[in-house]
Fold each of these.
Amino acid sequence: MNKLKTIAIICICVFFFITGCGYSTTSLVHPGAKSVHVTNFANKINVTQEVTDKRMYVGYKSGMELDVTREVIDRFIIDGNLKVASRKNADLILIGEVIDFKKEALRFDSADNVEEFRNKVIVNIKLVKAKSGDIILEENNFTGESTYRTTGEFAKSEDSAIRETIKDLAVRIVERIVEGW
């Protein structure tokens, strides 16, 4: 009986070794595409928007769209699935626009001072074939976010938190383009 159990366990292990665990990623990159050009993200944030009960903090860091562009390019370089190229040499073109920056209060102390915020940078992205202009991917309201504390041991500056938010956004954009789940 023990030999039968051992053989069954070995067969199961071999089966899972051969077939994998069932978790995998596949590339969404268009077949034959080896390079991407990232256009400068446009700034479409409405900076004249008024503060409301639902939107306590209206903010915008000057040049945020350029920071997003640089971080997305850096993330493509780190990822390595697509080479960053000039517009005329690229197989794909990523077009983006920053449409909103939100700063939300998450946690308050007993005196109603904000102790923790969540930042969100929201963009619209479009990936097109360079030669034909065919749209491969288009997503609106694509979001990167991070949280940060204003006091205590884990406190961060707002600038540091915004950089972290932009980095999260860039990681998500590149993952969305090159990985399929």
Amino acid sequence: MKESSKAMERRLSSEKEPLFKKIFKGEGIDIGAGDDLIQVPDVRGFDMEDGDANHLDQYFPEESFDYIHASQCLEHMRDPKAALDSWLKVLRKGGFAVISVPSWELYEGMIWPSRFNPDHKSTFSLWQDGSPAPNHVKLPEWLAKFNCEIVYCDLIDTNYNYKIGTSVDQTYPYENRVEAFIEFVLQKR
């Protein structure tokens, strides 16, 4: 579904472009990239064939990367807190983590299990306290538990049609450029 490509188009054509040009410098890793690796210099992909993203720190030394990127990956992890802890270990101090996850409200339609991706193990929301999922994450309170500055944490609803809502997976096809996600950027202290 090329979620990373859609996000990069938006990021680099918005008022946040200077921030993302600052973030995507140096050596980076795109976790769960599949066939949609972000198009920036010096980035490497990491997907299932490379190992278990739940334990990224088992594959790379601490502070290996200037930035990490993960689009639509954290919701597939067995324990999102432990996974993010592992990801942050391989991030250098002062480095950035750019992560997007499906919105419990806009993408999932507050229906569990996910109708659009049965491999989701967690739900994420900016304001809902819970869900029937094994793991529910209420952002940004959850993010405050990490040794990072929250640069931002926003609902991304680019081209989302609220009249259609969650009756279909609006993020498909790619040509519609619909996003129904929460994106957050952390800077490691």
